């Protein structure tokens, strides 16, 4: 299939690092994990993302199930998360209700580097609270996540306010009027989009459109007093946390229902796929989906794009080397070593076990190739004495250990080694 990809073991360490960092940072800010289904009724996304968005019009994986119901593989997580918030009455908890989730998303897009049809996101939402200090802390947490990954210096935070249900429609009209007057100088896609979703036109990447779009009226000048004050507070709190940002009054987001604070983290290192994370406030959306009139703010991080920015892990595949290779010589020795391997693994010592049907020399070669620090040899003689031979693979030095002590001895040596490195 085009646009899907496998995450091979050599890459998985980076994914674990990204996901582990997210859990650690988000939980420090009081966010709890919620796990959601990967498909929902199509109607949820049509309403929750907006009928006139690119996602709903062109990018959804939609099909009829066997009962004839239209279902869609989720293109983003917010709509599902809000559905769960409403369905399970999570609004009764102290506000803001803070949730995060991670997993695959599906969009029918033209595949290229950093753009897939199945990709993965980390999603964060804070619900039921519209204080500007919350906006600043949500953004602060996003920045903190990238700091923890040592990537913050390579990203730029772009910030805008899109106004609310009062002032945004006024701006929309003003912008539409301007775009109509300059339609001749815009690309076909802009002209096509303009009547349906004029704000999204500001996002056009066609160089020829830029002069007209750069001279378009600014949303900043159209903000009502409440929105102006809210945005000024958000900026003041970001300053108080020493979080640098660039004010970008052309920044609009793909979702229809973004209001007020809107932001994106971009990089100069990934070509056209320059957005690594994006988010914003969506007051009114929970109510639109049939819930209480709770405001909300959140963001999504594209994991593939984060992984592209990460350096290869220092240890590479070294971490997967077995600590010891257990070599039984013959079937009785294999039976004696099977429970030893189980016990060692239960104490988190990685061991591999031969089958007892090969020559000692070839098994020692194998231990070498696997990179095991120790070989443990049990032949007929050792078995009769109730012993095992421990061989240091680096020096070749050998000594014996009583079989009942073997698993504990391996665990002890493993600890010593680990505390040294
Ligand atoms: P773009 O402008 O790149 O299409 P978007 O505005 O559609 O991004 P969002 O819906 O805001 O993206 O999703 C949040 C993040 O998810 C993006 O910033 C990006 O890192 C990632 N993302 C979005 N679409 C894809 C995709 N098709 N493949 C990989 N990552 C993606
Ligand atoms: Mg997109």
Question: How would you describe this structure in keywords?
Answer:
421 residues; alpha+beta; BirA Bifunctional Protein, domain 2; 2 domains; 8-stranded mixed β-sheet; 17 helices; elongated; binds adenosine-5'-triphosphate
Overview of the molecule:
The protein is an alpha+beta fold. 40% of the residues lie in helices and 21% in strands. The strands form three sheets. Strands 1-5-6-11-10-9-7-8 form an eight-stranded mixed beta sheet. Strand 9 and strand 10 form a beta hairpin. Helix 1 (9-28) packs antiparallel against helix 5 (132-148) and helix 2 (42-49) crosses helix 4 (78-87). The chain is elongated. Adenosine-5'-triphosphate is lined by residues 76, 107, 109, 114-116, 119, 121, 254, 273, 275-278, 300, 302, 304-305.
Instruction: From the alpha carbons, calculate the radius of gyration and give it in angstroms.
Output: 28 Å
How many separate helices? 17
CATH class of the largest domain: Alpha Beta
Uncertain spans = none
Structural domain tally: 2
Average pLDDT taken over every residue: 95
* Annotated CATH architecture of the largest domain: 2-Layer Sandwich
Number of strands: 16
Q: Any idea what the shape is?
A: elongated
Structural class: alpha+beta
Distance between the termini: 43 Å
Largest sheet: 8 strands, mixed
Percent strand:
15-25%
CATH homologous superfamily assignment of the largest domain: Bira Bifunctional Protein, Domain 2
Bound molecules: adenosine-5'-triphosphate, magnesium ion
Spatial order of the strands forming the largest sheet: 1-5-6-11-10-9-7-8
CATH structural fold name of the largest domain: BirA Bifunctional Protein, domain 2
């Amino acid at each position: 299939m085009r646009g899907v990809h496998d995450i091979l073991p050599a890459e998985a360490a980076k994914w674990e690092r990204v996901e582990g960092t997210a859990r650690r940072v988000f939980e420090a800010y009081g966010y709890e994990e919620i796990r959601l289904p990967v498909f929902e009724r199509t109607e949820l996304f049509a309403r929750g993302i907006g009928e006139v968005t690119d996602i709903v019009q062109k990018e959804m994986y939609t099909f009829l199930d066997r009962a004839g119901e239209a279902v869609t593989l989720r293109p983003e997580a917010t709509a599902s998360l809000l559905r769960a918030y409403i369905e399970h009455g999570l609004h009764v908890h102290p506000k803001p209700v803070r949730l995060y989730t991670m997993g695959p998303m599906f969009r029918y897009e033209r595949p290229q580097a950093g753009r897939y049809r199945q990709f993965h996101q980390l999603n964060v939402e804070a619900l039921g609270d519209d204080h500007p200090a919350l906006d600043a802390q949500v953004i602060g947490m996003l920045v903190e996540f990238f700091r923890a990954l040592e990537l913050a210096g390579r990203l730029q935070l772009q910030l805008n306010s899109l106004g609310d249900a009062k002032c945004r429609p006024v701006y929309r009209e003003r912008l539409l009027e301007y775009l109509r007057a300059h339609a001749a100088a815009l690309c076909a896609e802009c002209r096509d989009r303009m009547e349906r979703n004029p704000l999204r036109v500001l996002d056009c990447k066609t160089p020829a459109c830029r002069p007209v779009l750069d001279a378009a009226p600014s949303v900043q000048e159209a903000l009502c007093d409440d929105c102006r004050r809210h945005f000024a507070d958000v900026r003041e709190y970001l300053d108080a946390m020493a979080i640098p940002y660039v004010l970008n009054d052309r920044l609009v987001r793909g979702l229809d229902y973004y209001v007020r604070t809107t932001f994106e983290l971009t990089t100069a290192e990934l070509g056209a796929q320059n957005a690594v994370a994006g988010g914003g406030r969506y007051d009114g959306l929970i109510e639109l989906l049939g819930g209480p009139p709770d405001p909300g703010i959140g963001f999504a991080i594209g994991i593939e794009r984060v992984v592209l920015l990460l350096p290869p892990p220092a240890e590479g595949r070294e971490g997967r080397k077995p600590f010891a290779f257990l070599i039984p010589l013959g079937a009785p020795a294999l039976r004696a070593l099977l429970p030893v391997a189980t016990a060692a693994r239960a104490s988190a010592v990685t061991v591999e076990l031969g089958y007892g049907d090969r020559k000692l020399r070839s098994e020692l070669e194998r231990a070498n190739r696997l990179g095991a620090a120790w070989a443990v040899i049990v032949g007929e003689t050792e078995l009769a004495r109730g012993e095992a031979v421990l061989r240091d693979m680096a020096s070749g030095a050998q000594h014996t250990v009583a079989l009942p002590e073997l698993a504990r001895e391996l665990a002890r040596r493993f600890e010593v080694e680990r505390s040294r490195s």
